[in-house]
Specification:
Blueprint: H1 8-11, H2 17-31, E1 38-41, H3 52-55, E2 59-64, H4 67-79, E3 85-88, E4 102-107, H5 117-128, E5 131-142, H6 144-150, E6 154-156, E7 160-162, E8 165-175, E9 181-191, E10 194-205, H7 210-219, E11 222-229, E12 244-251
Parallel strand pairs: 1-2, 1-4, 2-3, 4-5
Antiparallel strand pairs: 5-12, 6-8, 7-8, 8-9, 9-10, 11-12
């Protein structure tokens, strides 16, 4: 079974200007009151959740393990006239590829749980080494505490469209004996009420609890830890009840 990140063409089908604006509003909230002019996203992917920063005047850099995703990111950045540095590397070794320091180092998407908990904490250390004094470390992530408590099996998405093609996406989650979770992603393509294509992908995650991440930030000397629902403009939902959350923490000067 293939990996979705090897098919950036399919991964980006869900994107549209409305989603771009949604992520832009999120970043406006995160930037407000914070001195952030340079940002490195160590899991930028195709840039769908981060390119908005360039429009907000932030000098954006990025890395990802997938060259296919970075290729799409370069295309989208060029189309919008953004000048940015992109490198293909593992976020557990990102400090070997960038000089820094940055005002903020981020991991967007649900990227940290792609590796085991100890490696995710190692990635945070690598990120920290590139943050300037009084700068920020940021990440966004699925609410694994909630997932482990409720153990949902199916996650259907609202249909989206590529021209006259309707795309139906459903995730089916398998809970493995070693504590990891396999996400099976089923894409069904439909035209004129007829299915004509099916794509199935498999992604493997290692759930990581919020307190473990916050404890690691505290141990590295971070303070002012701001935990919000993600995207941050969602109203009326407590962090513990949200499907996703994000954290931005300030490094001691």
């Amino acid at each position: 079974m293939g990996k979705l990140y090897d098919r950036a063409d399919i991964y980006d089908l869900i994107e549209n200007e409305s989603r771009f604006d949604m992520f832009k509003s999120h970043w406006e909230n995160i930037l407000r009151g914070r001195n952030i002019h340079t940002l490195l996203d160590v899991s930028i992917g195709s840039g769908s959740a981060t390119l908005q920063l360039a429009e907000l005047g932030v000098q954006l850099s990025g890395s990802d393990l997938s060259e296919n995703m970075l290729a799409n990111c370069r295309k989208k950045a060029a189309a919008r006239g953004y000048d940015m540095e992109l490198k293909c590397c593992d976020f557990r070794k990102v400090a070997e590829h960038f000089d820094g320091p940055f005002d903020c180092v981020a991991s967007t998407g649900n990227s940290l749980p792609y590796v085991r908990n100890e490696d995710a904490l190692m990635a945070l250390e690598q990120m920290d080494s590139l943050v300037r004094p009084s700068g920020y470390l940021y990440f966004e992530i699925r609410n694994w505490d909630k997932i482990l408590s409720q153990k949902p099996r199916f996650l259907p998405y609202a249909p989206f469209f590529d021209g006259d093609v309707r795309i139906n996406l459903t995730q089916i989650w398998d809970y493995n004996g070693d504590g990891s979770i396999t996400f099976n992603l089923l894409y069904v393509f439909e035209r004129e009420r007829r299915f004509f294509q099916k794509e199935v992908f498999e992604e493997h995650y290692f759930p990581i609890k919020k307190q473990l991440l916050l404890n690691k930030l505290g141990g590295m000397g971070y303070c002012e830890m701001d935990v919000q629902v993600y995207p941050s403009q969602i109203q009326g939902v407590a962090v513990d009840d949200a499907d996703w959350y994000c954290v931005i923490a300030k490094k001691q000067g």
